[in-house]
Amino acid sequence: MTTCLFDPAPTPLADVKGTEARYPVRRIFCVGRNYEAHAREMGVVVDREAPFYFTKSALAYVPSGSTIPYPPGTENYHYEMELVVAIGKAGFEIAPDDALSHVFGYACGLDMTRRDLQLAARAKQRPWDLGKDFEQSAVLSPIVPVAESGHPTGGLLELRVDGETRQSTDLSLLVWSVAELIAHLSRFYHLEPGDLIYTGTPEGVGPVVAGQTIEGSIEGLGGISLTIA
Q1: Where does the Fumarylacetoacetase-like C-terminal domain start and stop, copy by copy (predicted)?
Q2: How many CA atoms lie within 13 A of 135 on its CB side?
Q3: Which structural domains are found in the chain, ordered by start?
Q4: Is 194 in contact with 23 (CB distance < 8 Å)?
Q5: What is d(CA 120, CA 56) in angstroms, rounded to the nearest whole number?
Q6: Each residue of 128-166: pLDDT tens digit?
Q7: pTM for the whole thing?
Q8: Per-residue pLDDT tens digits for 55-92
Q9: Are 111 and 34 in contact (CB under 8 A)?
């Protein structure tokens, strides 16, 4: 009989719209530079040969509506509003034409970022982990099942800080579509139910400070909110 030295961490469970059943979060993949205008504001260009990714621990998950502390180690804490894909069927080397059949649903997401740490790492050609993968940095709204949402190929995405619009775009401006991302990512990972894909943020990213509230929305998927304590 195997025993553990200490209690294993619980699996994060995300809300699903319209049901009390929860979505166990397995892994979080994030897509970089998936809107042309955001790449330009970050001083880089989109690599159209292939998408690129970074990851966050599943323990970075925090539900929409939470109040969280300003994170340690940063003086430039940024929001990034994103469409999130929730995988519902396992697959490896998935064909683009079959990719959308692996989607359970969609949600609004916030990829919270310690921008100063990310840029310092980028300048030294180091990984972005300190800037991206930290506690309570992957905010998620309730997942809307595909049966209700369909597969969004367009629609308004917006983010507001204390009621002021900071990000506004249309999902049709994604460089790499959801199907293309799933097909490409599955060449390198065996995708499984519970995997989340944050598909990238548009232009307009910026800092937030303690006391501010972030609100976002994606047409057909509802909203998301976060308060910085």
Answers
A1: 28-227
A2: 7
A3: 13-228 (3.90.850.10)
A4: yes
A5: 18
A6: 999 999 999 999 999 999 999 999 999 999 999 999 999
A7: 0.97
A8: 999 999 999 999 999 999 999 999 999 999 999 999 99
A9: no
